[in-house]
Amino acid sequence: MNGYVARKGHRWYAVVYEGVDPETGKERRRWVPAGADRAEAEDLARRLGTEEEQRRSGRRSQPTVAGFLLRYWLPAKQAQLAPVTFAGYQRMIRLHVIPHIGDVVLRKLQAEELEQLYTMLLEEGRSDNRGGLSPKTVHEIHVILRAAFGNAVRKHLLRENPARLANAPKHRRNTDRAHRVWTADQLRCFLQESARLRHHPLFWLAAHTGMRRSEILGLRWSQVDVDASRLSCVDPWSQSDTRFTKALGRPAAHDGPSTSTQGPSRCSPDGGTTKRMRSGATMRKVRCSPSLTAP
């Protein structure tokens, strides 16, 4: 058997046996990330194992859509994307592309098959079987496939990009939908009720500075200067596979109304916020905790 699954931490991997290295004499195995679902990992292991068996038996097989996306394109993109962006690409491909057109030979893929895929996803594409995906999500899938198949064209695996020829759902903003936000009274009530909680200074910080969740999660006490009423977040965090990881190299700046992405996030809190940060800093000295979110 050339493909099997293994688990490391919270993630499953499809492991493919690739024979013995002629130079070192050691067995070679390729580990392909397969997400948090074992059934999906087993399906991926079977697919990759079959491809490897065909390759080793001397039968030259043309890559399938699944083989190209999972074996070549996604691993190459991982080094180019932020963790949260890569996780989104991976999730959309595994949930909404591979189960439907994964077995199609890449060179035989037609624009009409992509259009049928988009229509199906709009009608019944949700993984919880509760209807279809939104036009925005299907359009994002189309953008991902257009980039992937464009790469296949440059590598001479495709003559032309079928995603460029396919009609995809238009992503239009719904200007009629009102944004649901708290009123000032609701926010005030929440802050009053949460005053007893350990993370109350973080809630207050978010409410009075507009800092993003990723910035607050990445903020450390060493970056808080309560005397100068100044804080600076160098390493914002992002959510990936239900866990939070550093979004290295992609700090989101925040200095008043600015939305620049150059340099670390900086903020000058008001007097009330500084007072609560000072209280949190006092508790930090008791707990010896380097992070605002650490227990």
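Above is the first protein from milestone M3; the second protein from the same milestone is given next.
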Amino acid sequence: MLQQASSKDSDAAPSIAVIGTPMIDFLVEGLDELPERGTVAQVNTFERQLGGCALNAAVVASRLGAKVTLFTWLPTADSESRVARAERDEVIAYANNAGVSVQVVGSITAIPSSIVVIGSDKNRSFITFKTPVDSSDAVDLKPHLEVLKTFDCVFFSGVGPNERFTGDSLSSILKSLSTSSHADATGSVRDVTFPHPLIALDIVAISGWDKAKWNARIGRMMHYVHAFFPNDDELAQFEPTGVTRHRTIANTVNGIASVLESHPRMRIVGVKRSSDGCVVGCTSLPSLWIGGRSKDSECFQAPTILRGGNTLRDQTGAGDSWCGGFLAHWLRDKDPRLAALAANAAASVCVKHLGATKYLTSVEMLEAIEISKDMVAQIEDVYRAGMSRSPSDGPGEGIPLAP
């Protein structure tokens, strides 16, 4: 049986349960358009790597010092398919080599896969096979609920429009975890500033999804979530008339404010903005704010050490690296500013390599994080549009909304 995980000592490594299914990525580099039927195209690179949101985030968080267990769906050890059995063993070995424990909660016929086509301009296109992960169901997590409650954080990674997974069964799981995070063993209410376990969510907004349908489902899930990590395009999916292209910091901040206001349990929203770093909004964490302000919620923009495209090779896994880096540092240090810089640094190292985590080392990420700490003075407070204050309002106030 899986051992319970907890980090009672503030200096101990935080424990994170990451929930999701791995993938196999076939990375094609240097292809700007598909060849005509019956012809052959030559590419610079064609490489197979293990990936998937959950595995990527788990590996990064582990390499940055967290104690991580991946709760996942894999082919059975006695599968009739030799390939499926080999892929199962490969995923477990890869995770274990990165310091990640694996708890199999349910079975799938095969590990889903996709082809990632990286053009010369570094933009990507995807060919994704209809995935057997659709056979996974959140109900498979019920036997593991008591163990999940012992982790500092339970992170649902890469949740997308899966009919069975994002239904009422997942909302029920989240409700149970969220209820436990607000009471101790005697039933007394906990300090909800930092719930235990903290429930975090990362989604995958698939183009063409039924926005009304999936937003309603994910909206029900978010009622029980404490931390939400969308990219800017994904955040726009939750705005009734949201801008989806050429979004400004003001668009992002308004979206964050809307999520925080709509979901009372939400403590933090971190929005990934590619080479523009990230924008993070928090609530109920007044002691952590620059200038010691104590508003109900605040937002700040954190820069990234990567600027321009000179060192950019492939963005695959960058968002997952961001999530793993943020959680590993936020849970340990309780400082969202340093966590945001660490997350940006992890993502900036990821995009220098092909694929997600195969070439992503602890040493390189930690070096980038040390460099990023010098950028803490560059963190800018940004407010919801129209809420900037004048300098006479005191220290830290009056910082203009970033353009």
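Note on the second protein: The two ends are 52 Å apart (CA to CA).
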